[in-house]
């Protein structure tokens, strides 16, 4: 994978990507290196209105990143919604 080669040469690249996310109005809350289907888990929050899908596609089209998006619901809110 192209991204893994980049990290081997420049481990700080992860932080550079975080700066790019900030430019997309996404604030990195926390980040972990993980072993499994993904290499990293990055928790972000949207700071303002989302950017256009075109901008996100441009970011993803570099081929060095794959994403999965999940909506996280606080557990008390989840339980309440089931009542």
Structure description:
The chain has one domain. 41% of the residues lie in helices and 18% in strands. It is built from four helices and two strands. It has a two-stranded antiparallel ribbon with strand order 1-2.
Helix content: 40-55%
**Number of DSSP strand runs:** 2
Relative strand content: 15-25%
Please outline the major beta sheet. 2 strands, antiparallel
The H-and-E topology, N to C, reads as HHEEHH
The domain count comes to 1
Mean pLDDT score, rounded? 78
Distance between the termini: 46 Å
Strand order of the largest sheet: 1-2
Radius of gyration: 15 Å
| C-alpha geometry | globular
**Secondary structure tally, helices:** 4
Task: Assign the structural class, choosing from mainly alpha, mainly beta, alpha/beta, alpha+beta, or little secondary structure.
Answer: alpha+beta
Unreliable segments of 5+ consecutive residues: none
Helices and strands in order, then pairings?
Layout: H1 2-9, H2 13-23, E1 26-33, E2 40-46, H3 53-60, H4 75-81
Features:
41% helix; 83 residues; 18% strand; alpha+beta
Short note summarizing the structure:
The chain is of the alpha+beta class. It has four helices and two strands.
């Amino acid at each position: 994978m192209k991204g893994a080669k980049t990290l081997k040469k420049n481990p700080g690249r992860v932080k550079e990507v975080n700066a790019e996310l900030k430019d997309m109005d996404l604030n990195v809350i926390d980040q972990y290196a993980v072993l499994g289907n993904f290499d990293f888990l990055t928790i972000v929050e949207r700071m303002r209105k989302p950017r256009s899908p075109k901008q996100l596609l441009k970011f993803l089209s570099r081929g060095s990143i794959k994403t999965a998006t999940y909506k996280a619901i606080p557990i008390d809110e989840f339980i309440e919604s089931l009542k």
